[in-house]
Backbone:
């Protein structure tokens, strides 16, 4: 047997004897908007040696606010081994012996979002590992919205804020001074009427293709100036975003639309 072959076999044997962390992240299917959802991350040492100094970083869904970015949702019941750092949970899991595993969990109330609410978890160890491809895992929430059927006529209160690239009304609530509101009436025939103190020319229409979904548009002098789409977050309120077709600044508004 040549020296190079002996060296190669020794390297393979040593590598196979190392620790090997495998990470699994799980978000329950069908999470109800704004209800607490329990997210679990399991880290298992499937290697042949102890993994020392095991750490876990869980990246949480983020807002599109600027300059400060926040966690998209309200955290609770966080595992005592973890601490929030920015928009990530950093967890000290200590030592995992061969074949041992541990699970970290936390609750998060997820708001309505125009983009997927994604989580990613990555484990690491001070010990040498035989493979790194299984250290990370990711999952996304699949949200369920609340039925809020409308028949009209209904007086509606619209709370909103405006910014660039906003993806939820939740982002507005993080900055209460940015909020403003107005009132309209959803008529039974699907039209929208506006308060008489506004300049003449405003009109609109609304519709529901399902009890948990709302769409409406505002027009001025027959030109579409705002389009909303969102979903039920309670029995009388919807959240979503409003886009402005003729905005030159890519402005978007997060909206909460509630029966007055």
Residues:
């Amino acid at each position: 047997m040549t020296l190079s072959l002996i060296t190669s076999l020794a390297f393979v044997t040593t590598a196979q004897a190392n620790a090997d962390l495998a990470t699994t992240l799980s978000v329950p299917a069908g999470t109800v908007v704004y209800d607490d959802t329990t997210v679990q991350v399991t880290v298992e040492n499937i290697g042949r040696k102890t993994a020392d100094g095991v750490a876990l970083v869980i990246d949480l869904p983020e807002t599109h606010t600027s300059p400060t970015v926040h966690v998209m949702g309200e955290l609770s019941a966080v595992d005592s081994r973890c601490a929030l750092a920015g928009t990530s949970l950093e967890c000290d899991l200590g030592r995992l012996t061969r074949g041992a595993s541990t699970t970290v969990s936390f609750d998060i109330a997820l708001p309505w979002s125009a983009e997927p609410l994604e989580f990613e978890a990555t484990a690491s160890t001070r010990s040498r590992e035989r493979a790194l491809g299984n250290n990370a895992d990711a999952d996304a929430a699949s949200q369920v919205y609340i039925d809020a059927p409308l028949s009209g006529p209904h007086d509606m209160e619209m709370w909103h804020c405006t910014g660039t690239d906003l993806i939820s009304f939740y982002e507005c609530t993080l900055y209460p001074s940015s909020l403003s509101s107005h009132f309209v009436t959803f008529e039974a025939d699907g039209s929208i009427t506006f308060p008489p103190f506004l300049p003449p020319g405003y009109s609109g229409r609304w519709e529901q293709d399902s009890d948990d979904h709302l769409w409406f548009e505002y027009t001025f002098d027959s030109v579409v100036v705002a389009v909303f789409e969102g979903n039920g977050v309670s029995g009388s309120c919807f959240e979503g975003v409003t886009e402005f077709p003729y905005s030159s600044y890519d402005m978007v508004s997060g909206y909460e639309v509630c029966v007055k």
Remarks:
- The chain is about 5% helix and 50% strand.
- Confidence is low (pLDDT under 50) at residues 5-13.
- The radius of gyration is 25 Å.
- The helical segments are 3-16, 170-173.
